[in-house]
Amino acid sequence: xxxRFQIANxxxxxxxxxxxxxxxxxxxxKVDWFEIISENYMQTAGRPLAILDRIxxxxxxxxxxxxxSIGSTDPLDWAYLEELRALRERTNARWVSDHxxxxxxxxxxxxxxxxxxxxxxxxxxxxxxxxxxxxxxxAPLVLENPSTYVEFxxxxxxxxxxxxxxxxxxxxxxxxxVNNIYVSAFNHGFEAAEYLRGIPLDRVVxxxxxxxxxxxxxxxxxxIGPVVDDVWAxxxxxxxxxxxxxxxxxxxxxxxxxxxxxxxxLRAHDFIAKHATARSALAxxxx
Amino acid sequence: xxxxxPAPVQGGPTEVFMHERASATPNGAASLRExxxxxxxxxxDLRVVGAAERAxxxxxxxxxxxxxxxxxxxxxxxxxxxxxVDRILTSTPRMxxxxxxxxxxxxxxxxxxxxxxxxxxxxxxxxxxxxxxxxASDYVTTHPSRSPxxxxxxxxxxxxxxxxxxxxxxxxxxxxADLAALEWALVEVLHxxxxxxxxxxxxxxxxxxxxxxxxxxxxxxxRLLSFDYPVNxxxxxxxxxxxxxxxxxxxxxxxxxxxxxxIWRMDLTPAMAALLASLFGGATLGEALEAIEAAxxxxxALAEAERSVMIWFREWVQSGxxxxxxxxx
Lengths: 287, 329
What we know:
The structure holds two protein chains of two kinds.
Chain A: E1 12-15, H1 21-27, E2 34-37, H2 47-58, E3 61-64, H3 78-91, E4 96-99, E5 102-105, E6 108-114, H4 120-137, E7 141-144, H5 159-170, E8 173-177, H6 178-188, H7 192-198, E9 204-210, E10 213-214, E11 219-220, H8 229-242, E12 246-250, H9 258-266, H10 268-286
Parallel strand pairs in A: 1-2, 1-12, 2-3, 3-4, 4-7, 7-8, 8-9, 9-12
Antiparallel strand pairs in A: 5-6, 10-11
Chain B: E1 9-10, H1 61-73, H2 85-88, H3 97-119, H4 121-127, H5 129-142, H6 157-167, H7 173-191, H8 200-204, E2 222-227, H9 231-239, E3 252-259, E4 262-268, H10 270-280, H11 285-295, H12 299-318
Antiparallel strand pairs in B: 1-4, 2-3, 3-4
Helix pairs in contact in B: 3-5, 4-5, 4-7, 6-7, 7-9, 10-11
């Protein structure tokens, strides 16, 4: 456990996807933990919840939302938050995460993770809302750095500076998505290493890895396919800097069978082991 | 009319069909559509900001979000009617500000269309991918999501097939409306709570002379649907990969319900549908049976229906169609 919130490191988990339900329920595979997309189990009372209940009995769960819209200038949706909290109680989710973004405005939801202008105004606005949500949940909110494809001309800071300012003002946790760093670094022309040096690593509760789709001019965060070597390398670097966190693979399109998906997630152990070896070598050298 | 009870068929939205919502971005290039209704999300009047022409424009957060949402949800293109894209967003050596914004513009529509493909797989097959995408894209324009969740996003598709056909005629729209109603019932039942249902033993406790006065209200977990087209047979053929053709009109009725995690579809004869519709409408069993008599086309059909009623009832009770049985005090 290395994060300042003392939230446990659950190991290497997998995003829970419907295509794997039958295998998980029948074969009971050994998996450290599952991450659920919160909204897939909200505004429903039927089969999705019945299956989730069975899975939550057997595995640790963390909740990952896509519609909190924490950066929006619309009012917070308290009915949504009530349901989110109830789902956390139901699944005994270890933490609740979402994204540093906004998803809609003027009462409409685009269902996309939209980029924030990186300004002081946005920091103040978003941090105040994070605090409200944390007070309501009585737990740290864990927020993920998104993949982005545009930057606002009005931005006055780099993304890692924005995240640091937000964390300082709101005292929230971080879900460090190394694929998103890689994607945004390519799309905006910054150095991933500089990003990693710039963020408050003691707030990282969880890390994501995922596949993406590379075009000539940009990269899209499609969560398709295996994680590319460059992202695994960045993960290894980030994991060592963070000093350990729960790790999760997101695979959301053209999803292979459970074993193949899980095997891809477990590749994280190659890099985690390197980190452990380096740390013990360092400890040995000091003693 | 026949007493041969159609066997219920298991299978609604399976794990194969139910793709969940995720945090990924749909892939692909920006798509331009030329003949769509205008978006109704109004962009802020940027003249009030008063920045020098072509200089970067620093909008207040609220205005920036309204502008951005308006651009990416616009039915035609992210740039339509807006010269300020490159003042609000930055370009890179590889991509213009407009092209970058286009990634979000494409993703918005693609994600929601994909959601509708997930909810309406047979309709997507029946109309063909191109016609379905045109229908779904118009649906996205006319039905912006106001929910944090997409579980109910496609709810209005059946009604929208009729609405759209009134101004943009498309082939097979009446069949499409029927099939959409069936497919939406499957989604609804999937998400419906486990409902209270009448236990089979409760029927035994009713004295025969009181049957006529009994009321059997509908369980919340069942949907009774009447169609102009045989859409359940079509849906089953689609599920069997039988590559069905769009059928001619032929009235049909289907009950959709869930037992545990399994979703079932049961075809109903006209007599069954009439009886259930009467009961679910609040009629007593006696009144509902009178309705059957009135609807019977021949004396033979009526005799068959009367013989079959108890068989039907047993099946319906076992399938959880009724919430309870009510008798007047």
